[in-house]
Write a structure and sequence with these properties.
Number of domains: 1
CATH architecture: 3-Layer(aba) Sandwich
Number of helices: 10
Order of helices and strands: HHHHEHEEHEHEHHHEE
Structural class: alpha/beta
Distance between the termini: 58 Å
Strand order of the largest sheet: 3-2-1-4-5-7-6
Largest sheet: 7 strands, mixed
CATH class: Alpha Beta
Radius of gyration: 21 Å
Shape: globular
Length: 289
């Protein structure tokens, strides 16, 4: 698909210090998949909420903290400034024990070195990239591993999961093509991510850009729909009494999709979606006192 082809072209040119920027046009192969803004919020909220409000452009730095300081000293990286606080707080919440991280997208190796320095001592980093040149960033003596392959190929993803996983953290910073992001989550969340664990999709703003929309259903669409799936036990059981402690109608059990039992929390931030996995086996309980 064109989005995938353009991404590979960008990867090739990036190695030469160049870039190609695609812009939407009527002949684009993604024309049928162009993003359509939602109409419902404006129908249900007052116009004041949608009053045009200006955000000013700035060249001022917007990042600080330990993770940013580490990254700043390593050549070969590219990050949006507002990501650093998100990553730092999310990973610190996981504690001081060694972690296993899978990152889709190695690029020029800067991220691999950053995570190796930031993660708790004894942690293991595995980077996945389609570009064979990225193998040069592997440093097994320092627990940095790099596998070459396509994130959208289930056989490859299954193999690296068996060899290196399961993982405490999975970061999708790969092609950013909509189908790839959805497929990677499909392959990885259930079997490759530990419980508890954290799945992070970076650069989710690409879901709105024509050059990455090889299908209409984006990863952000999937993530929003998973909010509904997370509440599956309420869909079939439409009264609080079914969950009330001591009530005669209290449910002894309920059948829900497996993924509804795995997702603890979904966070939406600017360009980042974080899905927390922490498998549960019990229905929620309500109580009157």
């Amino acid at each position: 698909m064109l989005g995938s082809v353009l991404w590979r072209l960008n990867k090739l040119l990036a190695g030469l210090g160049l870039s190609y920027r695609v812009r939407a046009n009527p002949l684009s192969l993604e024309r049928e998949h162009l993003y359509q803004p939602p109409s419902q919020p404006a129908k249900h909220l007052s116009g004041e909420h949608f009053k045009p409000t200006r955000l000013e452009g700035t060249d001022e730095g917007q990042a600080n903290g330990e993770l940013y300081s580490i990254w700043k000293d390593i050549p070969g990286g590219h990050k949006w400034h507002h990501y650093f606080d998100i990553y730092e707080s999310t990973i610190r919440d996981l504690g001081d024990a060694p972690l296993r991280m899978l990152e889709i997208g190695v690029n020029r190796g800067g991220s691999a070195k950053m995570w190796n320095r930031f993660l708790p001592k004894g942690s293991v980093y595995l980077g996945l990239d389609i570009n064979p040149d990225c193998k040069q960033f592997e440093d097994r003596d320092n627990n940095i591993f790099v596998e070459i392959g396509d994130q959208s190929e289930p056989g490859f993803v299954s193999r690296i999961t068996k060899e290196h996983g399961p993982f405490d953290i999975i970061i999708d910073d790969g092609s950013h093509v909509c189908s790839h992001m959805v497929e990677s989550f499909n392959f990885l969340f259930d079997t490759a991510l530990k419980s508890p664990g954290v799945y992070i999709a970076e650069d989710a703003h690409s879901n709105f850009w024509p050059g990455f929309r090889d299908q209409s259903y984006s990863f952000i669409d999937l993530s929003k729909d998973l909010v509904d799936v997370l509440h599956s036990h309420y869909v079939a059981n439409d009264s609080e009494m079914y969950f009330r402690q001591g009530h005669s109608a209290h449910l002894s059990s309920a059948l829900v999709p497996k993924i509804a039992t795995q997702i603890k929390e979904i966070r939406f931030l600017d360009s980042v979606v974080i899905i927390y996995k922490n498998t549960k086996t019990k229905l929620p309980v309500s109580e009157y006192n």
